[in-house]
Write a structure and sequence with these properties.
The complex is a heterotrimer of chains A (271), B (273) and C (346). Chain B is mostly helical and 273 residues long. Chain B has helices spanning 2-25, 29-54, 65-82, 86-96, 99-103, 109-139, 148-173, 181-195, 207-214, 218-230, 236-266. Chain B has one domain (16-266). Chain C has a 6-stranded mixed β-sheet with strand order 5-6-7-3-8-9, with helices on both faces. A 4-stranded antiparallel β-sheet of chain C has the order 11-12-10-13. A 3-stranded antiparallel β-sheet of chain C has the order 2-1-4, covered by helices on one side. Classes of the chains: A mainly alpha (271), B mainly alpha (273), C alpha/beta (346).
C-alpha cells in the first residue's frame, strides 16, 4: 500500500475527529450523574432565558415594534446558531487554565494543526439541548407568527444560521485567545459570553453609537436579530440579514488567525 | 477569654485578607467585572426605555421607567457582589479532594469559606457595586435619597450576604453526590437571577409567582435591602420589618445549611489517586 | 555525517513583571509597567550526532526546559539558530513534529479519556504509520514492558509510572529520528525508574533514535547517558562525555581505611586520628595538595587527587605506619562532581 504522507486534508481531519468524537461520547456517557445534571442545568438555563422574556411580555405587548412571538423566533434562531460553538469549540473555556498551568505546549508537538488538535479534545454533549429547545421554540413561534411557510424561507434560514454561527464561534475564539496575551483570559471570555444574554433584544432599541457597536464590533446583532429580518420583515428588503454571510466568514478567519498567532507565541511555564 | 476572642477575629481577618489578595491578583479580572456591570446597565437602559416607550401608561405595576432601571441595576449589582463562586469553589475542592484538608482545620468550614468570601465580596463591593451605584445614581437623575437609608441599606447588605452564603452552601452540598460542578452552579444561578428580581422586578411577576417567591429567601436577600434604600420617607417600623425579615431568613438558612452540610460531609467520598 | 541537532549561539530572553507584596502591592501591580528581562538561555552551542543519548543537567531554573522547548519548536529563540533534522523547529513545526517524539515529565500527551490502544490508533492515523511498522512496534513494546495488559486502561486511570511509560512508548511509536524526554522519571518509584531506563536504552539501541534527556536524577544519567551537557543560569558550562566528567577536576578517588585500636564511637578521637593521618601523608607526599580527610562512621576517608599522587603508593606507605584492618576504594560519584561544578560556579 502506498503511504500517502503529507496529505493532511479535510478527509484526514474528519477521520481523526470521528475517532476522538466517538471516544469522547463514550466517556461522557459513562459519568451518569454528571451527564444528567449537566443536561438539566443546560435545559434550565435556556428555559430561564425564555421565562425571563415571558415575564416581560406578561406586562407589555411589544418592544420597539416586535411582539412576543417575533422575539421568541429571534431567540430560537440564536439558540440554534450557538450550538456549533457550544458543541465543537467548547474547549475554548479550558484554554485559560491550560495556558496557566503550562499544559498547552503539548498541542504544539504533533504534526497537526494546533487549533484543530485543541478543539478536537472536547465535545460538549449538553449543547445538543440548546439545539433541541431552539428548534422547538422556532417551530412554536413560527406557527404562532402566521407568516406562512415555504421551502425558500427554510433554506434562507439555514444559510443564515450557518454563517451566523461562524460569527459566534469567532467572537468566542477571539475572547478565549486573549488568554494568550493577558492573564485574565478566562474573565474576558466570561465577560464576552455575557453579551449572549442580550442577543434577543432588537438592535433598534439602541442609539446609533451602540447600534454600531453591537452590530460590528461585538456583533450580537448578527447572532439573531439581523438574520431574522429576512423572515420577519422581508418587505424591508434590507441588506442587513445578508451581511451575515460575508461578516461570518471574515470574523471567523480573523479570529482563527488571532488564535493561532497566540498559540504559536505561547511558550509555556517554567524553565 | 479576651485573648481567645482576639485571635479568632484575627484569624478571620487574615482569611479576609487572603480573599482580597486573591481577588486582586488577576490584573484585568476585576476591571472585567465592572465592565460586565456597565454593559448590563447599557443594555437594560435601552431595553426598558424601548419597553416603556411602547407602553400605553407611564407607570406599570407601580413602577416607572426610572424605578425599574434603578431596581434592576442595583439588584444585579447585589447579585454580582454576592456571587463570588462559593458553590463553584466548594465543588472544585470536593473534586480535587482538597476539602479534606479544610475540614480538618480547627475552624469550622463555614467560617473559613465565609471569611474568604467576605474578602472577595469587599473587593466586589468597592470595585463593582459602588461604581454601579454611582452610575445609576446619576443616570436616574439623582433621585435616590442620600440619608439614613444608606446605613440601613448597608446593614441589609451584610445580612443579605450571610443569607446568600448559606443558600449557596445548601446547593454546594449536592456537589458531594455528583461530579457536575457546572450543572449545580448554573442551576443555582438561573434560579437566583430569575427569582431575585435581577432580570425583571418582582412587581412584574404574575401573582402566583409572587406567592411562591415570598416563601423563598430571595426577597430577604435582594428586595429587603433595596426597599430600605429606595423607599421614600421610610418609617423606622418599615426598616424594622425588613431587618426582622432578614434576621428570620438568616436563622432559617443557617439552620438548613448546617443540617444539610453535616449530613453531606458524613456521606463524603473522595477521589482516589 | 551531519549532526542531527545543531544549536548556534542560541539565546532566549523573557520579560517578567516585578510583583510586590501585600494588598497595596497587589493594587500597585494592577497598574505597573515594571518589567525586568531574564536571560533564560545564554549563547548556547551544541552539536549532537544521530544515535547519541545526551543528558541535560542543571539546577532548577537553569534553562533546561527552555532549551528543549526551543528544540521542539515550542519557543522561538531570541537570537541564534536551531536546526533539528535539518529544519528550523519554530518555522517548520509541523514538518519537524513528524520526525520527533516528545515527553514532558508530568504532562501526558495521550488522550485523557481514551483507552491506551485507542490513543495508539489515533497516533497511527496522525503520523501515517503503516500497518507493518505499527504492529512491529507494538509487538516490541509488549516484549519490553508488557504493554498489552494496559491496552484497555484509560489513561486517566493509570498510575503516574504507567502513564509515563505509555507516553514514552507513544513517543517512539512512529519511529522518530529524535526523542526529547523532559524529566521522564520524576516522581516515580525505583523499579519503575529502572524499567523506564531499560526501555529507553533498548529503543535507542534498536532504532538508533537520538535521545535528549533532561533530568535531575543521577541514576538516569549513569544508566543512560554517554554524554552530558550541564547548564546553569542559562549558560552551558560542560559538554562532554561522562567519563571525562570524572576527570573534570582531576582524578579523585577516596581511600577508606579502618584503623585498629581506635574507639569508633568517640567522634573527637576519630577526627584527630584522621587529621594526624592526613598530616603524615602530606609530609611524605608534599605534592598531594588537594588531599582531604574525613570521618565516615568507622571509616577514615582520604580523598586523593591521583594526578598529584598515586593512591596505591599512599596506601602502601600508610600500611607501614598505621594498623589498617580494612580498606575500600571509592570512585567519586557523578553527583559529587556535578555538585562541585555547580559550587565552583558559585
Amino acid at each position: 500500500m502506498e503511504i500517502t504522507k503529507n496529505k493532511r486534508g479535510i478527509r484526514f481531519y474528519l477521520h481523526i475527529y470521528k475517532m476522538l468524537f466517538i471516544q469522547c461520547l463514550k466517556t461522557r456517557m459513562s459519568y451518569r450523574s454528571d451527564f444528567i445534571i449537566s443536561m438539566i442545568g443546560m435545559v434550565i438555563m435556556n428555559l430561564s432565558g425564555i421565562a425571563g422574556f415571558l415575564l416581560i411580555f406578561n406586562n407589555f405587548n411589544t418592544i420597539c415594534g416586535y411582539n412576543k412571538n417575533e422575539l421568541l423566533f429571534i431567540f430560537a434562531f440564536f439558540l440554534i446558531a450557538i450550538t456549533p460553538n457550544q458543541c465543537f469549540f467548547d474547549n475554548n473555556w479550558n484554554l485559560a487554565f491550560e495556558i496557566m498551568d503550562g499544559r498547552f505546549i503539548i498541542y504544539n508537538l504533533r504534526p497537526i494543526n494546533v487549533f484543530f488538535y485543541f478543539m478536537s479534545n472536547n465535545f460538549d454533549l449538553k449543547g445538543i439541548w440548546r439545539f433541541i429547545i431552539g428548534v422547538s421554540l422556532l417551530v412554536y413561534s413560527w406557527i404562532n407568527l402566521d407568516i406562512g411557510f415555504s421551502v425558500i424561507m427554510l433554506l434562507k434560514l439555514i444559510v443564515l444560521l450557518i454563517f451566523s454561527s461562524l460569527s459566534i464561534i469567532a467572537l468566542i475564539n477571539a475572547a478565549a485567545a486573549s488568554g494568550f496575551f493577558f492573564i485574565g483570559g478566562h474573565q474576558i471570555l466570561m465577560f464576552t459570553s455575557s453579551f449572549f444574554d442580550y442577543t434577543m433584544y432588537p438592535i433598534t432599541i439602541f442609539n446609533s453609537f451602540f447600534k454600531a457597536l453591537f452590530s460590528f464590533i461585538i456583533p450580537i446583532g448578527f447572532f439573531g436579530f439581523y438574520p431574522c429580518q429576512a423572515i420577519l420583515r422581508p418587505e424591508n428588503n434590507s441588506i442587513m440579514p445578508w451581511l451575515t454571510i460575508p461578516l461570518g466568514v471574515i470574523y471567523f478567519i480573523l479570529s482563527y488567525k488571532l488564535w493561532t498567532f497566540g498559540a504559536r507565541r505561547y511558550g509555556g511555564t517554567g524553565s | 477569654m479576651a485573648v481567645k476572642k482576639k485571635s479568632r477575629l484575627k484569624r478571620f481577618f487574615s482569611l479576609t485578607k487572603t480573599g482580597i489578595i486573591r481577588a486582586l491578583n488577576f490584573r484585568g479580572a476585576f476591571f472585567i467585572g465592572l465592565a460586565g456591570q456597565i454593559v448590563f446597565i447599557i443594555a437594560i437602559f435601552f431595553l426598558w426605555r424601548a419597553i416603556y416607550a411602547a407602553s400605553p401608561t407611564e407607570v406599570v405595576n407601580g413602577m416607572t421607567f426610572k424605578d425599574t432601571l434603578i431596581y434592576l441595576v442595583l439588584a444585579n449589582a447585589i447579585f454580582n457582589m454576592t456571587n463570588v463562586y462559593i458553590v463553584y469553589n466548594i465543588c472544585d475542592d470536593i473534586q480535587s479532594g482538597k476539602i479534606v484538608l479544610d475540614l480538618l482545620k480547627p475552624v469550622h468550614y463555614f467560617l473559613i469559606r465565609f471569611g474568604e468570601s467576605c474578602g472577595m465580596m469587599m473587593v466586589q463591593f468597592i470595585f463593582s457595586f459602588i461604581p454601579s451605584f454611582i452610575i445609576i445614581y446619576f443616570l436616574s437623575g439623582q433621585v435616590i435619597n442620600i440619608g439614613i437609608n444608606l446605613v440601613f441599606f448597608f446593614i441589609g447588605l451584610v445580612m443579605a450576604s450571610v443569607i446568600n452564603f448559606c443558600f449557596n452552601l445548601c446547593f454546594a452540598c449536592f456537589c458531594f453526590y455528583t461530579e457536575s460542578c457546572w450543572g449545580i452552579d448554573t442551576l443555582k444561578n438561573c434560579i437566583v437571577t430569575l427569582l431575585s428580581g435581577a432580570v425583571i422586578p418582582i412587581a412584574f411577576f404574575p401573582d402566583w409567582l409572587k406567592t411562591i417567591v415570598s416563601f423563598l429567601p430571595f426577597p430577604a436577600i435582594f428586595n429587603a435591602p433595596l426597599q430600605m434604600l429606595l423607599g421614600d420617607n421610610t418609617s423606622f417600623s418599615t426598616y424594622g420589618y425588613y431587618l426582622l425579615l432578614q434576621v428570620f431568613w438568616m436563622i432559617i438558612m443557617l439552620a438548613v445549611s448546617l443540617l444539610l452540610w453535616n449530613k453531606s460531609v458524613k456521606a463524603l467520598t473522595i477521589n482516589g489517586g | 555525517m551531519d549532526p542531527i541537532i545543531k544549536l548556534c549561539n542560541v539565546s532566549k530572553e523573557f520579560k517578567v513583571l516585578n510583583r510586590h507584596q501585600g494588598i497595596l502591592g497587589s493594587v500597585k501591580d494592577l497598574f505597573s509597567r515594571d518589567y525586568s528581562i531574564v536571560n533564560a538561555v545564554n549563547n548556547v552551542n551544541v552539536e549532537i550526532m544521530p544515535g547519541e543519548v545526551v543528558g541535560y543537567l542543571g539546577p532548577n531554573g537553569a534553562g533546561k526546559s527552555t532549551t528543549i522547548k526551543m528544540m521542539t519548536g515550542v519557543l522561538k529563540p531570541t537570537s541564534g539558530e536551531v536546526l533539528i533534522n535539518g529544519v528550523d523547529p519554530f518555522k517548520s513545526r509541523e514538518k519537524l513534529a513528524e520526525n520527533i517524539g516528545v515527553v514532558f515529565g508530568q504532562r501526558t500527551q495521550l488522550w485523557w479519556a481514551l483507552p491506551l490502544i485507542e490513543s495508539f490508533k489515533v497516533l497511527k492515523e496522525m503520523y501515517f504509520i503503516d500497518d507493518d511498522t505499527y504492529n512491529t512496534n507494538l509487538k516490541l513494546f509488549n516484549e519490553l514492558v508488557g504493554v498489552e495488559k494496559l491496552y484497555s486502561k484509560l489513561v486517566r486511570q493509570m498510575s503516574l509510572g504507567q502513564r509515563t511509560l505509555c507516553d514514552i512508548l507513544a513517543a517512539f511509536l512512529h519511529d522518530p529520528k529524535v526523542v526529547f524526554l523532559d524529566e521522564p522519571t520524576i516522581g516515580l518509584d525505583v523499579s519503575m525508574k529502572a524499567q523506564i531506563r531499560e526501555l529507553i536504552l533498548t529503543l535507542n539501541e534498536k532504532k538508533n533514535t537520538t535521545v535528549i534527556l533532561t533530568t535531575h536524577d543521577m541514576g538516569d544519567v549513569d544508566a543512560l547517558c554517554k554524554r552530558i551537557v550541564i547548564i546553569d543560569k542559562g549558560t552551558q558550562i560542560y559538554d562532554d562525555s561522562i567519563e571525562n566528567l570524572q576527570g573534570f577536576f582531576g582524578k579523585y578517588r577516596t581511600l577508606k581505611l579502618m584503623i585498629s585500636g581506635e574507639d569508633y564511637s568517640d567522634e573527637e578521637a576519630m577526627k584527630k586520628c584522621a587529621h594526624d593521618i592526613e598530616g603524615i601523608v602530606k609530609a611524605e607526599f608534599p605534592q598531594a595538595v588537594s588531599l582531604t580527610s574525613a570521618v565516615d562512621e568507622h571509616w577514615i576517608d582520604l580523598t586523593i587527587n591521583e594526578e598529584e599522587a598515586q593512591l596505591m603508593k599512599i596506601m602502601s606507605f600508610l600500611n607501614e605506619k598505621v594498623k589498617i584492618t580494612d580498606v575500600k576504594i571509592q570512585e567519586i560519584s557523578t553527583e559529587n562532581v556535578i555538585k562541585g561544578i555547580y559550587e565552583r560556579r558559585g
